[in-house]
């Protein structure tokens, strides 16, 4: 059976909003100082990277979601509702890991009512199979701490976070 669906890889990651300390150069006798507010704030990010299974010309799509604190089943369902709206009811095969919130009773009940969504589980200890892990590596050292003043606004802001969606622009010319 051939299914004309989006294959969407999904993952979450937590980040610290404290800046990272790095080695640097400075004029002799002028030690550089790093100033920050010293409150240990954390945020979580979720990303969904989609490829169309039958039509490569549609290009990849990236959605990500930011929120203070960590994800649980209820907030993951909210994120998946936004993913569903982004894909406008087109069939989606969502591939994600074995996090307990992904396979909870509430999540399974919610997914059962979504005709556009099919879930597939990645094998345990296989992050190399999820391309979203490469996104986290790319953000890695620079992460949310490099957002400067935006970081505290992210964690102190009202609501459950924000979603950002991206579709490929036209061809890039160098």
Automatic annotation (TrEMBL):
Under the heading Gene3D superfamilies, the entry gives: Ribonuclease H-like superfamily/Ribonuclease H (3.30.420.10)
Ranges where the record places region Disordered: 147-174
What InterPro entries does the database record attribute to this sequence? RNaseH_sf, Tc1-like_DDE_dom
Query: Which ranges carry the Tc1-like transposase DDE domain?
Result: 7-139
Entry-linked Pfam families: DDE_3
Q: Which domain of life is it from?
A: Bacteria
Name it. Answer: Tc1-like transposase DDE domain-containing protein
What broad taxonomic lineage does this protein's source fall under? Bacteria, Bacillati, Actinomycetota, Actinomycetes, Kitasatosporales
């Amino acid at each position: 059976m051939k299914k004309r669906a989006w294959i969407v890889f999904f993952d979450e990651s937590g980040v610290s909003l404290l800046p990272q300390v790095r080695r640097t150069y400075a004029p002799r006798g002028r030690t550089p100082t790093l100033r920050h507010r010293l409150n240990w704030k954390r945020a979580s990010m979720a990303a969904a990277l989609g490829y169309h299974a039958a039509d490569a010309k549609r290009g990849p799509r990236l959605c990500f979601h930011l929120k203070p604190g960590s994800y649980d089943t209820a907030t993951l369902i909210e994120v998946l509702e936004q993913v569903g709206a982004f894909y406008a009811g087109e069939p989606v095969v969502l591939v994600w890991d074995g996090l307990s919130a992904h396979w909870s009773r509430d999540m399974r009940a919610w997914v059962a009512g979504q005709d556009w969504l099919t879930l597939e589980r990645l094998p345990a200890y296989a992050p190399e199979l999820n391309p979203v892990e490469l996104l986290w590596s790319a953000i890695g050292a620079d992460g949310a701490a490099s957002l400067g003043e935006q970081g505290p606004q992210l964690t102190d802001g009202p609501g459950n976070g924000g979603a950002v969606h991206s579709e490929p622009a036209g061809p890039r010319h160098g």
